[in-house]
Sequence to fold (297 residues):
Amino acid sequence: MQLLPAGNSKFWINLWKEAQRRSPMRNRRRHTEKDMIEMWNNRAKHFAKNTNKHTGQKRRQRVLGFLEQEGALQKGFKVLDIGAGPGNFAIPMARIVSQVTALEPASEMVKILQKRAAVENLENISIMQRTWQEVDVEEEGLVGQFDLVFASMTPGIQDPETLNKMIKASRGYCYLSGFSGHRWGEKYRELWQIFYDEDLGDNPGDIIYPFGLLYSMGYRPNLRFTTHQRVREHPVEEATENIMKFFENYMDISAGAKKEIEDYVAKHADNGTFRQEINSCSGMMLWRVNNDVADAS
Fold:
């Protein structure tokens, strides 16, 4: 009997990998993993400050409330936070559970996390300054060691292999969040079309891929979506700089490319302000690990 795609792990594995293979952004990305870690080092202070604003606090409350409601965050739990950053979730989780292991490769992020933990006298956070790709859960004795394995909007979980590793490390729950649908605003997509004469394409990190794979493996994740509608307004110079930083990941910003961006921003600005409407969606899902469910590797 031929399996339907929904129950065929190989179908979802191939679909996920094909999305990555065909992604214009992945194919044109210039930076290595080491470069990306350095980028996050440079952005650490700004990221920590920005995610601590009202919107970031509301998101944390929503996520932590979801976990507590589902019984995935309890006193006595041991938690692994993959891609912990400056401790946006590691810190509040450490106030509840017995132990948090924060996995974060960027040293500047780690410094902020350590300072935040020290301010609150939290001594139950241990730090692993590594990428999830570098961790071997079997050789390092991490199989089934955590009641919750948590991964929020992180490149640490980016393919079937890293997802399977996440499941192996858990003895209870797994939480994963990511974008759903288009991630970048239309103006970025228009500029991409101008530079490369191609569409920016779909998001190869869309949460539908891990969800479909988990479903095919026999899990039934609790999946919730949140839509985000906001308007970003920046002075022309700041908007130009932000766009150039984005495209520096994919191309050398020549004098011609810089002028193209400057002209585009000037054309779409109103009274010196560049305005961009961003409509996006993110999904968060939680599932309980069942040791009887085989992995999809």
In short: DSSP finds eleven helices and eight strands in the chain. The chain has one domain: 5-182+203-227+282-288.
